[in-house]
Design brief:
Oligomer: single chain
Distance between the termini: 20 Å
Low-confidence stretches: none
Number of strands: 3
Structural class: alpha/beta
Strand order of the largest sheet: 1-2-3
Radius of gyration: 15 Å
Mean pLDDT: 91
Shape: globular
Largest sheet: 3 strands, parallel
């Protein structure tokens, strides 16, 4: 990777990691009041995409996978990607806990 791209990647990684640690999206999605707008956004995404059966969907920046799980619940085949390993580990634990077969992580 060229040096100029490496520094951009490193900065993006640091910012994403800090956000995951300090303000995880899972907290917003699962908070009864603060999560209202986030959950409404996900419902709109699902409504806009339409029927999911047999659709392949790539979610880049999935963090702990709230959106990926909702998309999978609606029948999509999801590939979830995030640069933060801890976020993918958390999503994988949810996939295993709820036995979700139609999400693959990278």
């Amino acid at each position: 990777m060229p040096e100029k791209f490496k520094s951009v990647y490193d900065d993006a990684y640091k910012a994403a990691k800090l956000e995951f640690i300090e303000e995880p999206m899972d907290d917003y999605y699962n908070h009864p009041l603060a999560g209202i707008f986030s959950r409404l956004r996900v419902k709109r995404i699902i409504r806009e995409i339409g029927k999911f059966s047999s659709k392949n969907i790539l979610e880049v920046g999935c963090e702990a996978g709230y959106v990926s799980i909702k998309l999978a619940e609606n029948g999509g085949n999801i590939i979830a990607l995030d640069i933060i390993e801890e976020a993918i580990d958390l999503l994988n634990s949810k996939i295993n806990k709820y036995n979700i077969a139609n999400i693959k992580t990278l």
